[in-house]
Design brief:
With 284 residues, this protein is of the alpha+beta class. It folds into two domains: 126 residues, no CATH class; 149 residues, no CATH class. Helices cover 56% and strands 10% of the residues. The protein has 13 helices and four strands. The longest helix has 26 residues.
Length: 284
Amino acid sequence: MVFDEIIKKHLKTEEEAEEFLNYAANKFVKENTAEPENDEILQKRWNEIVSFANIFGAAGAVNTLICPKRPVEFNDPNSVKIEMYDSFCGKIMILSIADTNDFETFITNAVYKGVRPEHLSETGAAFISGKTTRIIALSAKPYSNVPAEEIGLSEKEWAQKSLLIRRGHEATHYYTKRRYGISENNLHDELMADFFGVYEAFGYFKAELMLRFFGLIEGSGGRLRFYIGTLSENTQNAVRETAFVCAENLEKWSLTESFSAMTREERTEALCRAGIGGIYTNKI
């Protein structure tokens, strides 16, 4: 079996082994059979929002067309930006909110109906989904709450890189949601999303960055705990070691000729097909 070594090392019972294998199972095996999104309706709504923003500003468009029931009292309305991002999986509207309080208020109002969720201070991006629109909301927070000095960049440089990481990360989730009907906060999804986010922001991938974001090396990051917190302690340890190996293998894969020859969609599909097991064994 792919994970025999991990199971023998960390898991003490059959129940724990089953829990780990269920967690590591590849979900991306069947394409989405639901009725596809109507791109014409989405584009019409996006055009309406962009046109309004061009006249009244992006902050005005947010409060009038995106969350009119719970408008945001922006501290810095001039820093709110709206753009159409022509991603590898289709166009998607990007809403960038530089002020942290403004971003968190927007997420509270637009996504959680005015009730501030737990861990919002550790959230840097969100996917807004409604009947007639899809929007990726991005903050200027340091990615995974890792400060610039840990990355070796200036705060300005790191803010720019963080935005690009989040954009590539959320575009990956958008792709799997459209193609497979799935976008979840677990290791497989987050490995893929962080991999592409980092690669697109820097032009290369370093495992050290992902491991720092996940909290698997000493530093300020710690996102992995949000994706494994419901698992038993032994299973969490098994997932942590699996993630460490997967990050190193993703870096190796990013340096291969086959990777260089692929399109962004082909690369995403390769990781979807591989699953955690394929990434763990470096069989992508």
